[in-house]
Each structure stands twice: as C-alpha cells, then as structure tokens.
C-alpha cells in the first residue's frame, strides 16, 4: 500500500521537527541527553516511509514521537546548566531503549515478504499499540522528573533578584518541596484533556478574535473571564489550543482542560483539578511547594476529595498571588449535570486569586449563558460566511491543506479555490472535506464527487457526512463496489462506537460483533473517525454523532441509539458466555484480599481480556438503555447467563475490576426492563439481592464469592440453588439461615432526634431524611438501610430536604436561615449556602427541570432561586399570614403549592409570583407538608391535626376522607414518582409507607413482631478445625493470624459469637447461628470447593 499525500505530509513535518531538536541539542550543552534520542526518532520516521502494512498506525506513532521529543526539548531548554542527574539520565536511556525496540520492529516488518506481511498484519497492529504505551510510560516518567529539575533552576534564578531574607525562606521551602516531590505523583491527571489531539491555528488566520483575547489577557481592568461562544465546528478548540500554547511559552498558562464527548473520563469534573494542578506544577514551578502543601493537607482521601476542596487547595490557593490564565475548552461537552459545579466554584474563587483569568469556549447553551453571558467575547461570529475575514481564513486553510496535492499535480490551484468557496466558512466542514480528499487514492475524482451540485455535499456538514458514509458503503480497498452486506457492516461498527460506554479498540469491536470488518470500516471512514494512540476508535467531532442520531438528515444511515445498545447487549452476553470461567485470575489462596495478592493487577490484565472486562462492566447498562422489551432470543440469552455458575463467574470479574458498586447501580436501573418473562424479572431481582447482601466479600476477595456467600444466601435464592450443586465443598449454615431475602423494615431507625422531613429520589431507589440533630441521612429504599454517614454542614436543625429530579443533588433548608446544596453521591456540600430569608427555612424543593429551587420560611415568605448560580429570582412571594411550612413545584413547573401554619394551602403562578385562586381550607391546624401528584391533578397535604388530605387542583376540593393513622404530628408526606405510594414521617422518629388510594383509608404498617427468646445450653465454636485464635472483626471477617477464613452477614454475627441464645422468628438479628465445617475447603485448597 502506497502512502497517501496526507501521510507523506505528516512524516515530512515530523522529520523536520525532530531534526530541529537534534540540531539544537548539538548546539546547547543543556540539551546533551537529547541528541541520541532525537537521532533515533529521525531514523524511525525515515524507516516508516517504506513500511507497507498498518501504514496509518505507524505514521500516527511517528508523529506522536516527534511531539514527545519536542515537548522534552522545550522543558530541557528552560534549564541553564547541563543535566547530570543520574535518575534523569536513566530515564532518558530507558526512553532510548523503547525507541530502539520500535526501530527494530519496523525493520523486521520492512524485511518481510508480501504474503508474510499480510499474515502478520493484525498481530503487528496490536504490537504497535503496545510499543506506544511503553514509550508513553517512559515519556511521562521523564516529564515528572524534569519538572523537579526545572524547579531547581527556576528557584536559583529567582533567588538572585529577591532579598536575602525572603530568598533564604524560599530556599528552605523549595528544598523541602523537592524532598517531597513524590506527592505530585499522587495526582491522577488526564493527559488526553490537555488538548494533545487538537491543532493550532494556521498562521494568519483568526487574527481578529486572537488579537481581542490577547488584549483581554493583558488588560488588568477588564472582566476576569472571557467566554468564546459559537456553533459546533466553528474552530473554538483550535483557538483554545493556539492561545494555550502562546501563554505557556510566555509563562502565563496555569493549565488547560479540554472536555471531550468521545472520552467518558473527559466529560465530567472528576479529573479537572488533578489535571490543572499537575500542569500548574510544570508551568509555574515556583508554585510547586504550595501545591504539595495542598496535597498533604488533603491527605489520603485525595482521590475522593470533594471538588470544591481540591480546587481550593491545589489550584486557587497556590495561585492567590500569581498572574496566570486557565483555559477551559468545550464546556458544553461536559456532562450537563456536572458543569455547573466547576463553573460556580471557579467564578466564586476569583475573589481569592486576584490575578487569575479564565478563558472558556463552548456552544452558546442556555445554562452556560446564565453564568457567563456578561463575559461573552464581543468578537464577530467565527462561521458567518458574509464576513470577509472568515472567507479569507477558510481560503488560507484549504490552500494550506491542499498544497501538497497541488505540488504533486493531483489538484490545481483552481480546484483549491473552488473547494474553499463551497465550504460555507465552517472549519469542521473545510477540515473534513480536506481529509476526505487527502485520504483518497484519486484526489481529483473525489473532489469532483464532493462538488457535484446535485448532492451539494459541501453545502453543509450533514450533507458531507452523508456523502462520506455513502461512499464507505460502496467501496472496497481498491475503490470498487462491494456486496450488499456492506451497509449493515458499516452501520453496526458505527453503532458500537456510538453506544460504547468507553472507547473500544478495533479488535475488541470485532470480537463483540463477531466479525473481522471493523478495520476496513474505520479505514473508509478515517475522515470522521480517529484511532487514538491507545488503539481506541472515537468519533473525530461531535457533529458526526449528531448527524447519525438525526433521522431527518441521516436517512437510511440513521442510528437509533436504542438499537445500538441492543446490539451491544448481544455482544456482551456472547463474550461473557464464551470467556467467563471459575477462578479466572488463577488465585492460589483464599486467605488474602484481592489487594494483597502479589501481582494482582498483572493477573487481571493477563487473564481477563479487554472485551470481557467491557462486557462484564457494561452489559446491564446497555440492556437498560435499549429502552424496549427484550425480544425472545435476547431474553433467552439473559436467562441462560443466569443459570449455573455464570453469575458467580461474572462477580469474579466485577471483584477483580472493582466494579461491584457500579453493577448494583445498574441492577437498580434494570427495573425499567419491560420483560413479560416473570422468571427473568425474579432472577434479576435475586441477583441484585445477592450482591446487596454480599457486597463486602464479593468486592474484597474473589475466593469468598464462593466460600462466604453460598452458605449464607437465602435458601430460596436462584443463585444459591444453582451454586450448591456446583460448589458443594463449602461450610454449611445449620441454623440461622433465611429462607428468603430480608424485606425492608417497616420502620427505619437511624436518626437520634426528631425527623422533620423525607423525600424520595425520582428513580425510587433512595430516600433522604432530615432531623433536629443538624444532620441529613440517605437510605436505600429497597433495604431500609442508611447509605453512608450523615451529611453535616448546617449549624442548626435541618427542617427540609429534597432531591433534584436527576438524583445527583440534594437541597436542604435549616433553622440557621440558609439553604444548602449537596452532592447526593459523595455527601459533600456544593458551593456556599444560599442566603436571603430572615427566618428559618422550613421547606425547599427543586423544579422538575432542576433549574430552580423554591423555599418557604418562618419569615412568612416564599422565595425562588436559580439552582445553577444560587442567586434569588425576583421578589419574595407574599400572601400567607403565618409561617410557610411547605412548598413544592407542579410537574410542569408552572405552579407552586404552599402550606402554612395559617391552616391554608395556596397555589401560585411560578413565573409571575401571583396567587392562583382562593386558599384551600380544611385542615384545623398548620399545614406541614404539601406536594403535587405526578400528573399534577392532586395535592397531598399533611398537618399538625394528625391527618393527611388529598385535594383536587382544578376544583380546590378535598378528595375522600382524611387519613388519620399517625399518633403524632405528620410533618412530611411526599409521593413516590409513580404516584402509587405516599411516604409519611411522624415525630415518633419512624418512617412509614402508605398506598395512595383516595377511595379507601390508607392502612398503617403492622407493628414489628415481638421477639420470643429461648435459651440453649450448648453451641458450636465459630473457628474451623485447625485454626486457633480466630476473631470476628466489625466488618464481618473471621480471620486467624491475618488469614481470611470466611465472612459473616451482619444478622448472624451476634448469634455466631453467642450461640446459646436461640430466637424465634429465625430471621431475628440476634438469631443463633450454627456452622458445620466438615466440607469446608480454604487456603490453597479453596478451588476444591467446586464439584
């Protein structure tokens, strides 16, 4: 295969860059270690010219090496003395060895015959990816160590211009910091989010907008934030990359973060702080001691530290006296549920870093505009074809991209001019068109196809995408038509790429699809798809995804994402059926936890393939996202997976990958499956109950998935019934077992003070409650168990709580007169408290779109708040004559209902703040809780008169008779999302659940059964034969001399230690537990548990 013009251009450019580095290293002593390295890169690039197979992979690797060598050159250049650090030289030597391996491999391939090259092509492709990973590891190690060296030099230079006293202090601090540089390695930055895949502006283009932003960053009297907003594909990321590079060269750059929909880890805030802090340490080395202090202050919880704290300690505090710029690109590609958190905290933090400026790019989306509209760049549109500057920029870009083809005679200057005139001033359109032509073996013919006036492929980006995908379905490697299955193959590959939860390699996609055509499809779609350095295939630009998901423009190539997830489900199930097996990681002993097994990660990588890791992690999510009832074949595949030992083998992989919690979340979502097969629903529920009951042993030790779960599982569990015959040599629980999985308790205990209010999450899986003890608690709705520790932050009683509709946030109101927002996953507070009420905040609630919050207060007013910015909206709503005890939005967000101690309920217009109609009267004391039914037709209220009432929102009349079952005040009665249940809470510190049935009285839960205790004079010891000094830890593990023997569920721990107490009923938490160890296999014999 001959090189395409684009590939030759890339090689030439990379060679030029490497030669410049080599020449510079010969001239400057400080660059001495780089001379041989640069020479090796040049030899590799020259050799790549002659390689025939996997050309694109080799070219991409060569280009990547030239970028790395340039980065190393730039950082070494910042030092004023030659490097003699032994540690640094060793890393350089290792890097050179990896380059030598690459060169040897290329020469080996070049020497093969044509047939041998063909046979080894696929294996070579995988090895290229491995070689790149190896060299990347060395490069990252080099860059970490050079950061320390640069800091030393920078500090010495700085010392020459400072006062002696200040210099001495800085030297001491710097020396301490250098001794602690290992702390920097605790950061987990995301290299792909630093813009490595983006290009800079072509010289002479985008001069207007670039000059404006350059003036903005120089002007100390202008706004501290600059927002560049424009449509997709206008070239915003290129501008961000250009300015980042300039500011880094000038020493102004703090760090940059490029959000990217194609990378799940770059679509949320999780890696933001680590990535910025790591760059800050490199770009502003004088800040290294302060960053290290921040890491120390956070301590061992760095990986789970709340965003706000991490941002303050690792970024804002180090920058408090430093002039720097942060660059945030494509903010619109950050998950909408996440983006307000970095925005809110960065804007708030500007008061603590007086010289910090922030440059942000995104599409002009409404929620971002609410934060940044006042900071919008006044520059002209980047895509307006009426502007001559845009026309000139596009013409210059197209001419540059096509220059090689003009020189080679493939195109004429007239061809290039015609192309530039047709691409409508949209850079993504021009860039994609150029790629299509460059990749073609017949550039002139391809250009003519695109210029066809009937197709108008260059009229807009969607028409160009349609032309590209149509061509891919019609051509083979030689440009000839192929069989009728080609469209199906192309569509299936694209479906997998779109639906994949994480980007997948060509080989993994092939395995999931059971085909060998992915590489061919990716090649034909190389103008819209990209193979990353790690081998994963991603979409080049989000507009291609948007095209495929829009039936109006994609036509027959439209991708129904639900179909794509259904296809992924089949691939995942087939992979698990084929590859799952007992003791997949070949663990030798049951005495140790996974984390204590030597080379555990290596075993996982060796024995669990990429496709199996993906399938086990994501199959449940794909089924749920298919949004439709499984067909008969699919249901049968799931049922077959649930048989035999497969569920336990699946748990092995979850345990190895640390994905048990994710599986539990996915199983909760599996309730949305619409299967008519009752047995399938029961088995899925059984799987969920099994994981809930045994999440500790399953997460911590693979052998104990068998040794500790099967004996204690409910006797009627499908999994236990299947497993008992397959794994007979485990201990036997003679007494203390349960026939069925435990049901949630009817009254949940956990608060130590009066409970004020409860709220149900929209998915129905969690309940949040607040109490007089300044705390908030989360509960599992299915188990009745508290989830994590109480949420603390208010200074007084927490009087009201509510979930956001997406379940990711909680809002709370307190008698400290503030409102707080919380992260529902981590329990950490989000931003500063909302202040405005002059009395206790008695009730809070989100609007259905999560954009607003309504609150009611002791000051007799109702307030509306912007949930994104925390700012009040308009004036307070006034009308009640006493305290406003409860407020809630209607499902359409157009109305608000409020309840007051003036014994009335009021309806309000949520837009105008005006009251709607007359107050609703019927309660004889204060109305403590009000909420709409999901259809908006009814209101449910509770009162200090110990009753619950239902109201018709149209007539204002009461529905049915009041519910009079609580013996104390009923302060809270939210409805479940399906409208079928009402959860009520009383001041007796108990939570109860009722059916929402207006035609009959709602029954109270039955009181707990009394416990009947009998006594027995004998009981077994809980130590297996041969093990002395056994102990039962608080987390349930029975161990002997630090060797894990087995795990005990919470309800069996007391009865195992004190077996003389016999209880009826047998599911009592204190029940006696007797264990027979006669068949128990453990330690190095653990694998004998299998039949």
What does this structure look like?
This protein is α+β, with helices and mostly antiparallel strands and 1091 residues long. The protein is 41% helix and 17% strand. It contains 35 helices and 36 strands. The chain has a four-stranded parallel β-sheet with strand order 1-4-3-2. The longest helix is centred in the first third of the chain and has 39 residues, at 121-159. It is globular. The relative contact order is 0.05. Mean pLDDT is 78; it is low at 80-87, 148-175, 475-483, 976-981, 983-1020 and 1061-1066.
Topology:
Layout lengths: L4 H23 L7 H14 L6 H22 L9 H25 L3 H6 L1 H39 L4 H16 L27 H12 L6 E5 L6 H14 L3 E6 L13 H12 L4 H11 L8 H10 L7 E6 L10 H10 L6 E7 L3 H7 L15 H20 L5 H10 L4 H13 L3 H9 L9 H12 L13 H14 L4 E2 H8 L4 H7 L4 E3 L4 E4 L2 H7 L2 H4 L6 H19 L20 H8 L2 H16 L6 H10 L4 H12 L2 H10 L8 H16 L1 H6 L3 H4 L10 H9 L5 E4 L19 E6 L5 E6 L3 E6 L10 E2 L5 E6 L5 E6 L3 E6 L5 E7 L5 E6 L5 E6 L3 E6 L5 E7 L5 E6 L5 E6 L3 E6 L5 E7 L5 E6 L5 E6 L4 E5 L5 E6 L17 E6 L3 E6 L16 E4 L14 E3 L4 E4 L2 E5 L2 H8 L3 E4 L9 E3 L15
Parallel strand pairs: 1-4, 2-3, 3-4
Antiparallel strand pairs: 5-7, 6-7, 8-36, 9-10, 10-11, 11-12, 13-14, 14-15, 15-16, 17-18, 18-19, 19-20, 21-22, 22-23, 23-24, 25-26, 26-27, 27-28, 29-30, 31-35, 32-33, 33-34
């Amino acid at each position: 295969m001959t090189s395409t013009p684009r590939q030759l251009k890339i090689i030439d450019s990379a060679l030029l860059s490497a030669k410049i580095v080599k020449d510079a290293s010969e001239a400057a002593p400080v660059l001495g270690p780089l001379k041989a390295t640069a020479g090796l890169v040049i030899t590799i690039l020259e050799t790549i010219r002659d390689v025939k197979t996997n050309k694109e992979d080799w070219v991409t690797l060569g280009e990547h090496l030239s970028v790395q060598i340039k980065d190393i050159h730039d950082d070494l250049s910042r030092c004023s003395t030659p490097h003699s650090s032994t540690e640094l030289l060793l890393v350089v030597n290792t890097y050179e060895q990896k380059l030598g391996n690459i060169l040897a491999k290329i020469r080996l391939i070049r020497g093969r015959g044509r047939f041998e090259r063909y046979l080894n092509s696929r294996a070579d492709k995988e090895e290229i990816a491995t070689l790149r990973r190896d060299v990347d590891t060395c490069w990252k190690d080099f860059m970490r160590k050079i950061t320390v060296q640069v800091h030393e030099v920078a500090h010495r230079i700085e010392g020459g211009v400072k006062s002696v006293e200040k210099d001495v202090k800085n030297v001491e601090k710097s020396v301490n910091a250098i001794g602690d540089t290992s702390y920097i390695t605790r950061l987990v930055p995301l290299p792909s989010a630093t813009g490595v895949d983006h290009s800079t502006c072509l010289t002479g283009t985008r001069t207007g907008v670039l000059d404006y932003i350059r003036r903005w960053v120089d002007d100390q009297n202008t706004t501290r934030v600059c927002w560049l907003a424009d449509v997709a594909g206008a070239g915003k990321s290129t501008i961000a990359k250009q300015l980042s590079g300039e500011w880094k060269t000038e020493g102004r750059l703090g760090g940059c973060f490029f959000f990217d929909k194609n990378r799940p880890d770059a679509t949320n805030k999780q890696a933001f702080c680590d990535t910025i802090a790591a760059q800050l340490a490199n770009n502003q080395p004088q800040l290294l001691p302060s960053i290290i202090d921040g890491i120390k202050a956070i301590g061992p919880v760095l990986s789970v530290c709340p965003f706000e704290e991490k941002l303050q300690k690792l970024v804002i505090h180090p920058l408090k006296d430093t002039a720097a710029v942060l660059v945030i690109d494509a903010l619109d590609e950050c998950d909408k549920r996440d983006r307000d958190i970095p925005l809110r905290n960065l804007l708030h933090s500007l008061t603590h870093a007086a010289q910090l400026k922030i440059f942000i790019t995104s599409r002009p989306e409404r929620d971002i505009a609410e934060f940044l509209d006042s900071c919008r760049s006044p520059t002209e549109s980047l895509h307006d074809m009426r502007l001559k500057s845009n026309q000139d920029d596009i013409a210059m870009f197209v001419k540059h991209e096509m220059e090689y083809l003009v020189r080679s005679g493939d195109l004429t200057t007239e061809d290039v001019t015609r192309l530039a005139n047709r691409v409508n001033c949209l850079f993504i359109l021009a860039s994609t068109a150029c790629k299509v032509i460059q990749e073609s073996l017949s550039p002139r013919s391809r250009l003519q196809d695109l210029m066809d006036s009937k197709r108008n492929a260059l009229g807009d980006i969607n028409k160009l995408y349609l032309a590209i995908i149509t061509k891919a379905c019609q051509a083979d490697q030689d440009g000839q038509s192929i069989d009728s299955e080609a469209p199906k193959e192309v569509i299936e590959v694209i479906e997998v790429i779109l639906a994949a939860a994480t980007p997948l390699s060509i080989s993994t996609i092939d395995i999931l699809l059971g085909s060998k055509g992915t590489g061919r499809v990716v090649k034909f779609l190389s103008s819209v798809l990209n193979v990353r350095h790690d081998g994963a295939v991603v979409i080049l630009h989000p507009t291609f995804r948007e095209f495929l998901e829009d039936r109006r423009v994609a036509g027959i190539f439209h991708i129904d994402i639900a179909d794509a997830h259904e296809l992924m489900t089949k691939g995942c199930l087939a992979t698990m059926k084929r590859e799952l097996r007992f003791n997949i990681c070949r663990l030798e002993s049951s005495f140790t936890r996974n984390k204590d097994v030597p080379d555990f990660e290596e075993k996982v990588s060796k024995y669990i393939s990429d496709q199996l890791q993906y399938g086990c992690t994501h199959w449940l999510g794909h089924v749920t996202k298919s949004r439709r009832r499984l067909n008969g074949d699919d249901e049968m595949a799931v049922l077959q997976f649930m048989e035999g030992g497969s569920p336990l083998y699946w748990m092995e992989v979850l345990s190895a990958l640390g994905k048990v919690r994710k599986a539990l979340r996915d199983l909760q979502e599996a309730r949305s499956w619409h299967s008519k097969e009752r047995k399938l629903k029961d088995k899925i529920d059984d799987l969920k109950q099994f994981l809930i009951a045994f999440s500790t042993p399953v997460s911590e030790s693979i052998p104990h998935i068998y040794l500790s779960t099967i004996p204690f599982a409910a006797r009627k569990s499908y999994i236990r019934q299947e497993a008992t015959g397959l794994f007979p040599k485990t201990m036997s629980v003679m007494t203390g077992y349960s026939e069925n999985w435990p049901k949630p308790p009817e009254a949940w205990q956990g608060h130590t003070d009066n409970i004020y209010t409860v709220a149900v999450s929209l998915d129905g899986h969690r309940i949040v409650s607040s109490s007089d003890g300044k705390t908030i608690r989360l509960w599992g709705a299915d188990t009745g168990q508290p989830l994590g520790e109480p949420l603390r932050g208010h200074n007084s009683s927490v009087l009201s709580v509510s979930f956001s509709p997406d379940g990711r946030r909680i809002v709370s109101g307190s008698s400290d007169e503030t409102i707080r927002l919380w992260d529902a996953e981590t329990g950490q507070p989000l931003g500063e408290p909302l202040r405005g009420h002059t009395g206790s905040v008695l009730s809070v609630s989100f609007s259905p779109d999560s954009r607003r919050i309504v609150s009611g207060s002791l000051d007799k007013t109702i307030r509306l708040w912007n949930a994104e910015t925390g700012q009040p909206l308009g004036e307070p709503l006034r009308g009640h004559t006493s305290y406003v005890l409860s407020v809630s939005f209607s499902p359409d967000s157009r109305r608000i209902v409020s309840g007051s101690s003036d014994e009335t309920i009021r309806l309000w217009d949520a837009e105008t703040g005006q009251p709607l109609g007359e107050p609703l009267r019927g309660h004889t004391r204060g109305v403590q809780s009000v909420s709409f039914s999901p259809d908006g037709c009814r209101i449910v209220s509770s009162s200090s008169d110990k009753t619950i009432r239902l109201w018709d929102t149209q007539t204002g009349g009461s529905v049915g008779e009041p519910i009079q079952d609580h013996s104390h005040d009923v302060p809270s009665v939210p409805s479940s999302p399906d409208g079928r249940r009402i959860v009520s809470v009383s001041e007796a510190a108990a939570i109860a659940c009722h059916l929402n049935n207006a035609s009959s009285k709602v029954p109270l839960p039955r009181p707990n059964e009394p416990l009947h205790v009998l006594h027995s004079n004998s009981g077994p010891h809980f130590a297996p034969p041969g093990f002395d000094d056994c102990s039962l830890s608080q987390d349930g593990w029975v161990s002997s001399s630090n060797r894990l023997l087995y795990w005990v569920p919470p309800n069996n721990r007391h009865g195992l230690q004190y077996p003389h107490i016999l209880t009826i009923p047998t599911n009592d938490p204190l029940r006696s537990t007797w264990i027979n160890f006669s068949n128990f296999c453990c330690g190095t014999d653990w694998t004998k548990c299998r039949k």
